[in-house]
Design goal:
Helix content is 59%, strand content 4%. It is mainly α. The chain has two domains: 168 residues, Endopeptidase. Chain P, domain 1 (Glutathione S-transferase Yfyf (Class Pi), Chain A, domain 2, Up-down Bundle), CATH 1.20.1050; 85 residues, NAD(P)-binding Rossmann-like Domain (Rossmann fold, 3-Layer(aba) Sandwich), CATH 3.40.50. Strands 1-2-3 form a three-stranded parallel beta sheet, with no helix packed on it. It is elongated, with a radius of gyration of 25 Å.
Length: 254
Amino acid sequence: MNHLSVEQTTALHPWNERGEIDAPGLENWVQGRLARQRDQIDTLLAVDGEKTLENTLRPYDDAVATLGATGSLASLLDSVYPDKAVRDKARELTQAVAEAATSLSLNQEVYRALAAIDLNAPDPTVDPGTRHYVSQTLLNYRLAGVDKDDETRGHLRELSDKATELSLMKPTARLVNTSRGPIVVEADLVAALREGKIAGAAIDVFDEEPLPPDHPFRKLPNLLATPHIGFVSRALYERFYQDTVNNIVHWLEG
């Protein structure tokens, strides 16, 4: 029976040899896994010549598996680990893994390498199932926007990151936005509120103001919408007008 070394075991999961996890250790483990995923993609892109299932699809699959396993474990720790410091770090790292997955889904070089695989070559490993898998993978890339220009792909990446942040909120959480409408993707927020993924929201700013009469925000029972007056309070008005009066007095006094 083969036994793994401490180093090999540590590479598989963030627990130390005593079965414990701390926030710095989790950070190191996840960053190590992300570095491994980048190495796997570099291996794929370094192929010079014919792209095959072995030299291109396999490292791609390995990279996807690395991200999937890392993100799943980080998300699990965020949900159930008893130490709050570890939970908080796990949530932060879940976001980092999701951002890496988004970057991979918009990587044009990876897409071109996968598209260059000759699925009609006389290779016994290229069966109908493999052809379907590669075709579906390429379709997913196009649906993600990989064939768009740099500006559009950057915007898509930003939207994906915002959606991921919303999905990481707890079911008891309430989102408050009194800053700028576009920092929240309204369609994603509506979906999260309808599905009960978060408890509620209070929104004072919108993509379009005034809020259209038929906007979904107006019909959600777990959303409080105010017409861009969230800053209004007696104390703020007293300070605002007092500052105005003081400025006039100072100007008149020279």
